[in-house]
Amino acid sequence: MKIVCPRKEFFEAVSAAAAAASVRTSVNILQYLKIEGFDSSVRVIGCDGEMWVEREFACFVADPGAICLQSKLLAAIVSSMPDGDIELHTLENGGVLLQQGASEYRMMSLDAEDFPEPPSFGGDGELRLQMGLLRKAVDSVIYAVTPEQHKAVLTGVLFSYNGKILTLVATDTHRLAVRRIDQEGIGSSINAVVPEKALRAIKALPIPDDHDVEIKFGGGRLGVEAGGAKVVSQLLAGTYPNWERVVPAESTRAWMVEVDQLAEKVKRTMILAKDNANRVRFKGEGDQILLAARSEEKGEAKEEVMMIPSNGEVEIAFNGQYVQDALGAIEGPGVRIEMTESSRPAVFRPADDDTGYFCVIMPMALA
Question: In this prediction, what percent of the chain has a pLDDT beyond 90?
Answer without folding.
Answer: 90
